[in-house]
């Protein structure tokens, strides 16, 4: 029989998960607060906090308790840490699009997404303006998509470039509203200003979305 962990020394990954939950529910918290709640030593709590900071899941800031007294370091969730907890954004988005379609007709959803594309295209064009060749523009676009969770790769085949998205952060919405995928394709056409075709789509059950560019 394998030996069980000694009492008061939880397994590291489980401790990190509990630490994130505590910061989420009760934060901001000090290392001392967390050590007491987790029933571990303060140095052990600091080690876990250091790991979570390296993973960009929590951030540290200095504040005075109650607005006065001696400053202390407290820990809160980063945006990435917040994203690790379940959200209902996709459900809300689907509900909003459904009501738009019900109130204004089938074409209204695409018109709303196209209007959003105008704003997105303006931001992306500023980034792409500094890129010279088509390959540089595709690489810059891929970097911006990665920031949004698309997990992209870029490959070249002669004069043609392939942009592959291995994750769809909007999959729940895209499966119910293919207009979202149409809008994405339209956005890439606008900002790259060359022919763009999609030959794979995650929302259709394939492993990735892939765009042929050029």
UniProtKB/TrEMBL annotation:
UniProt organism field: Deinococcus rufus
Name recorded for this polypeptide: Metalloregulator ArsR/SmtB family transcription factor
Domain HTH arsR-type: 6-90
Source organism, top-level taxon: Bacteria
SUPFAM superfamilies: Winged helix' DNA-binding domain
Gene3D superfamilies: Winged helix-like DNA-binding domain superfamily/Winged helix DNA-binding domain
InterPro entries the record matches: ArsR-like_HTH (IPR011991), Carb_Metab_HTH_regulators (IPR050313), HTH_ArsR_DNA-bd_dom (IPR001845), HTH_MarR-typ (IPR000835), WH-like_DNA-bd_sf (IPR036388), WH_DNA-bd_sf (IPR036390)
A Pfam family per the record: MarR_2
């Amino acid at each position: 029989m394998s030996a069980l962990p000694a009492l008061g020394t939880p397994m590291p990954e489980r401790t990190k998960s509990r630490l994130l939950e505590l910061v989420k529910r009760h934060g901001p918290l000090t290392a001392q607060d967390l050590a007491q709640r987790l029933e571990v030593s303060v140095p052990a709590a600091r080690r876990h906090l250091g790991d979570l900071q390296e993973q960009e899941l929590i951030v540290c800031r200095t504040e005075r308790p109650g607005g006065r007294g001696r400053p202390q370091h407290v820990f809160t969730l980063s945006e990435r840490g917040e994203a690790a907890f379940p959200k209902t954004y996709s459900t809300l988005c689907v509900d909003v699009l459904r009501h738009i379609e019900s109130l204004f007709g089938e074409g209204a959803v695409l018109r709303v997404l196209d209007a959003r594309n105008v704003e997105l295209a303006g931001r992306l064009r500023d980034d792409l303006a500094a890129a010279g060749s088509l390959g540089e523009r595709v690489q810059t676009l891929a970097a911006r998509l990665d920031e949004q969770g698309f997990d992209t790769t870029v490959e070249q085949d002669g004069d043609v470039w392939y942009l592959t998205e291995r994750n769809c952060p909007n999959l729940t919405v895209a499966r119910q509203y293919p207009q979202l995928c149409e809008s994405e394709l339209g956005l890439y056409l606008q900002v790259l200003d060359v022919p763009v075709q999609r030959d794979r789509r995650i929302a259709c059950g394939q492993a990735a979305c892939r765009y042929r560019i050029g």
